[in-house]
Amino acid sequence: MRDKVLLVDDESHITRNLEKVIPWEMLGLEVAATAKNGVDALQLMEQESFQLLLCDIRMPVMDGLELVREVREREIPCDIIMLSGYQDFAYTRAAIQYGVKDYILKPIPYDELTGVIARVMAAQREKAKQQSKENKKLEKIMDLASEKLLYDLMMDYTSFSEGHWLFIHDEPHMQMKQFCMILLDFDVSSEDTKDWREWSDKERKLWNFAVSNVLREKLQVEGLQHAVIGMRDGEWCVLIEPGDRSQFDCAKVKEWAATLLSAVKEHIKLSLNAGIYRGFVEVDHLAKAYRKLQLCMQLTPVHAPVTFYPDAVGQSNQTDQLFWGALERIIDSVKRGDHESVERECDGLSKQLQGMNNQHISKVEPLLHFFLLHLMRELKEMAVFTKEQEESLWRKMDRRFSIKDLMELIRGVTTAVSDKSLDKKKQSENTMLEAKTYLDRNMYRDISLDETAMHVGLSTSYFSLLFKQTYGVTFIEYITRNRMEKAKELLANTQMSITSIAKEIGYAERRYFTKVFMKYTGDNPSDYRAKHQHGKGEGHEDGKL
């Protein structure tokens, strides 16, 4: 597709000659329209986009300089070459002030004009190419930031509100966003996954990272707006923004899930299961939908590689879900180090089991077994067991045993963790203090959640939980707030350029820093500086925002 040119001159023979003599096609251009004065040209430019404007200076109704002034004031993107039979320096100076690319005197030297047009368009296309690269870079940065925020939303560490300063995307209707949710899970109970248990933490991190990359690359190839969020070791949540939100297309979403599973199987040589949430999920329902989907997958011992949830057919009854709720409370109590709550919940479970008949107990047994697997994965994230203890527990779970054995194992695991709770709590406090010190020391460089969690020897998911419990804010809220406060201080008290300030506080991309700062303060950096530097002189700026 060729770029478009608009020719403006009140002398028709000049525009006709320009159309015929200049090798537009060779230059990758086409003359899309002509006009006899500035008024007609403006009307055309409001209706259609032109990449190049060739314009005479002296014309009736509206001359060329007035036209150029209007084009610049209205911020119409277009390069301009002026044509004139007048050598008056005042015209040249005015043209330069309005950002005209070149000034050609009549009679028009067509060879010279052809060279000027080629040079102007080459520069324009190179600029567009660089802008496209910068936009892609910015989009990637914003997508990664969004994934961190989506993780916090899904874990219920933060809540969405339309005015939340961390939601920096430009969409005015973020509240109305809807996603298709696909949960991909690694079945740690299967025979094929026993090698996974032997992998080191480093090997598992690399493996999780590799799967995430395969999923992202496949979704990009498919042209889908997406986010891939690693929820825990061996579990990923894929959120896809559908093009058509009028109706949930089960067949299409199932096809997406199957494509992702095939990609992981092909490139990583591992088999995953996919659970699809039946229906669109809004932003403020992400946590609830994730927990529901995870619960349904845990409560379904045997399912197809791709399954929709919730489904009235084959779903667990209300008693089973309440039973699972008690089990989840045990995990929460263990994570908090609340020994009394653990004992209370275990006693309650024992009483429930004692009141059940044999038929119901036979249905509960697989539920307890799956819970124990779930518990092991969660405790693995917390790194509470030695390698020997973990191997011993896995061996026990590989055997078939009664519901009494299951219950004793659950109680034994939770009690072992709770017995360490005091030491663990003190250790956690020291770990979070170490993490805060590390963050404060490295705040003003591109530091990530993964890097900080690795520094203190925790998984990212458990680190996120402890950080929120300790400091009352999420990791990204803490680091971004501190950076913004530092930026406010630098803007108010120094003459550093905005680009330098952005780099100083850890933002390699200035436009991204500007977006975050505007959401945080309500002002762009230049306006904030102007408000807070009264009487301190003008700050040096490296271009407009």
UniProtKB/TrEMBL annotation:
Pfam families: HTH_18, Response_reg. Residues 4-121 form the Response regulatory domain. Residues 121-148 form a coiled coil. It comes from the Bacteria. The modification 4-aspartylphosphate is found at residue 56. Keywords: Coiled coil, DNA-binding, Phosphoprotein, Transcription, Transcription regulation. Residues 433-531 form the HTH araC/xylS-type domain. InterPro entries: CheY-like_superfamily, Homeodomain-like_sf, HTH_AraC, Sig_transdc_resp-reg_receiver, Tscrpt_reg_AraC-type_HTH. This is Response regulator.
